[in-house]
Amino acid sequence: MAPIDDLERFEPFRHLSAAGRALLSQGVLRKSVASAAAVVHKGQSVSGAYIALEGRLRVFTIAPNGTEATLYFIDPGETCVLALNCLFNDLLYPAWVQAETPASIAVIAGPVYRRLFETEPPIQNLTVTTLSTLVYRLMAELEQVHSSQHKVRLAQFILTHAASDGTLQMTQQQLARHLGTTREVVARIVGEFVNAELLRTRRGSLAIRDPYGLRRVVSPDPGGRR
Prior knowledge:
This protein is an alpha+beta fold. The protein folds into 2 domains: 3-139, Jelly Rolls, CATH 2.60.120.10; 147-218, Winged helix-like DNA-binding domain superfamily/Winged helix DNA-binding domain (Arc Repressor Mutant, subunit A), CATH 1.10.10.10. The protein has helices at residues 3-7, 11-14, 18-26, 81-89, 110-119, 121-161, 172-179, 183-195, 211-218; strands spanning 28-33, 38-40, 48-54, 57-62, 68-74, 96-99, 103-109, 167-168, 199-202, 205-208. A 4-stranded antiparallel sheet has the order 2-6-4-5, with helices on one face. A hairpin with a 5-residue loop joins strand 4 (57-62) and strand 5. It is elongated, with a radius of gyration of 25 Å.
């Protein structure tokens, strides 16, 4: 089966004009990769747009301490937004791509994809959808990260500033000002702590119910050490 036939299993490529299909057939190839195989390395020049045909790809970055952090996954019919950004802006790839499972990929040559983007509405829609989907995913991840950070900071603040009897005479609005967030965020996290039986709420104050549990929020270490 030709790579273009594989691509036409997916919605955008089924609706190309005859000229678009002819152009695509001149600049697409299929690449198969084994599970855990590297597909793209950080700093690599991007030769084209990558469309997953089968399997799943993982896009990730590596922190200075060597730990990996997944940015997003690419499933069949999806393309890599970082590769598109590199393609349109002549940049080197800023992350790594690895096959999560045995996978096959269609690689559309850069000049061909750019020309298709100029002339074919389905490719324009694919590109815009890819960008908007990634923004949504990254915003969700960012919200989760910020939520976790606020949770740790709030637990630390309560442990540090509570009186000897475990009470903290502060309103949720005051806590929000100290943490640089909104009262709604503090109220949600306090509610989670109450449901987990870590805190009790009183009018204008909080009371620590389980100091050891609250310390584990700050540090997963069973001993509560940082």
